[in-house]
Amino acid sequence: MLALKDVTIETRQPILNNFSFNFQLQKTYGLIAPNGSGKTTLFRSIMQLIPSTKGMYTIDKKPISTQLKRVFYFETSNWFDGNLSGWDYLLFVKSLWKSSVDVQKLVQDWQMSEYVKLPIKKYSLGMKQRLLIALYEVSDAKYLLMDEITNGLDEKNREKVFSKIRQLVDSGKMILISSHYKEDLETVCDYELFLENNTMVVKEV
């Protein structure tokens, strides 16, 4: 269980005020908020990339700072080093997260065989997004934080992502996925979290 207790986040402006919630395995949570309201800031705070003003994040009652290998978060394809290949990233994540996932199978599943060993600077946005999703799979982490994961994907691949999310959750994972489009998440989520005006409202779907 990923637990947030009395979390308050402020950057240049207030983002979230005194929020507590328990994220359970085998559940999908949709974080819905307008652009600029703090979705990414919340993800960064969970991952200890920025401090929260107050509050605590734990996994199974242990500080999340000691449990980060049980979580996977890759904020955006803009994080990729264009001189490296998708293959480099897949092998790196597999090694660092000590995963047993078959990388070659993932490459075939996401139809990356023709380009995965090329430098990422040659990739289109859609190619980068498929690689990004494959990194979540290859990590095999129990807790997956996905920030606007369907950006740049065509309808066919968006549907494939949502199908994959269902499979991952059924296999025992927890997924927190953000979007500013409510309709994107309604069919895949067990809970919807609405962030606006520093307040989080949770609704069971």
Based on Cα principal axes, name the global outline: globular
Question: Looking at this structure, what is the CATH superfamily?
Answer: P-loop containing nucleotide triphosphate hydrolases
Helical content (DSSP H or I, runs of 4+): 25-40%
Q: Give the H and E element order.
A: EEEHEEEHHHEHEHEE
Total DSSP E strands: 10
Biggest β-sheet description: 6 strands, mixed
| Helix segment tally | 6
What would you note in describing this structure?
By secondary structure, the protein is an alpha/beta fold. It has one domain: P-loop containing nucleotide triphosphate hydrolases (Rossmann fold), CATH 3.40.50. It is about 30% helix and about 30% strand. It has 6 helices and 10 strands. The strands form 2 sheets. The chain has a 6-stranded mixed beta sheet, with helices on both faces. Strands 2-1-4-5 form a 4-stranded antiparallel beta sheet, with helices on one face. α2 packs parallel to α4. The longest helix is centred in the last third of the chain and has 16 residues.
